[in-house]
Design goal:
53% of the residues lie in helices and 11% in strands. The chain is mainly α. Among the domains are: 2-44, no CATH class; 96-158, no CATH class. Strand 1 (2-3) and strand 2 form a beta hairpin.
C-alpha cells in the first residue's frame, strides 16, 4: 500500500505508475491524480499542445505509420467510422458537399479549376459559406489549409 501525496488516499501499488528514480519504484501520486493533472495541464496550455501535436503528426515515421495503418482492415474500419461521425456532426457541410457534387456532374461551369493562388492542378473545393453550396473556390491542399486558418483567426464560420 502507498499513499498518494495529492489526494492523500492509501491505495495498492498497482494504482501508481512505475518510476525507476523513486525509492520504492513508483510515482508519488496515483494514476487517477496523474491523469487529472495531465488533462488540466493540456487544457491550460491548449494552444501549445495543439501546435506540438500537429508538428509531431508530420514526422516522417508517423506519416508512414498512418499510411500503413490505413491499408489494414482495422484502419479502413476506423476511417469509415470517422467519416460517419463527421457526417453526423456536420450535416450542413455535408449537405453543401453533396449538392455541389450532384450539380457538378451536369454543369461544366462547376468543374475543377487550378488553384486560385498558385495554379496547382491538385485542388479542393472550398466553401466560404455553406449556405451558398454552389459557390466554391478551388484551392490546393496547402492554400486550402491556410484559408481555413485565416478564417479561424478572423472568427469566420462558413
Amino acid at each position: 500500500m502507498k499513499t498518494c501525496f495529492k489526494c492523500k488516499v492509501s491505495k495498492p501499488e498497482s494504482e501508481f505508475y512505475r518510476h525507476p528514480q523513486m525509492a520504492d519504484g513508483y510515482l508519488g501520486k496515483c494514476k487517477e491524480c496523474a491523469k487529472r493533472d495531465t488533462i488540466e495541464n493540456r487544457n491550460k496550455h491548449s494552444l501549445y499542445y495543439r501546435e506540438y501535436d500537429r508538428s509531431r503528426a508530420d514526422l516522417p515515421k508517423r506519416v508512414e505509420a498512418r499510411k500503413s495503418y490505413e491499408k489494414t482492415s482495422e484502419g479502413r474500419e476506423a476511417r469509415k467510422k470517422a467519416n460517419e461521425v463527421w457526417k453526423s456532426r456536420n450535416p450542413r457541410k455535408r449537405a453543401a458537399e453533396v449538392l455541389f457534387r450532384n450539380r457538378q456532374r451536369n454543369d461544366p461551369s462547376l468543374s475543377k479549376k487550378p488553384c486560385e493562388v498558385c495554379g496547382a492542378e491538385k485542388v479542393h473545393g472550398h466553401h466560404e459559406n455553406y449556405d451558398e453550396p454552389l459557390k466554391v473556390r478551388w484551392l490546393c491542399p496547402k492554400h486550402h489549409s491556410e484559408r481555413h486558418k485565416e478564417m479561424r483567426k478572423l472568427g469566420i464560420k462558413p
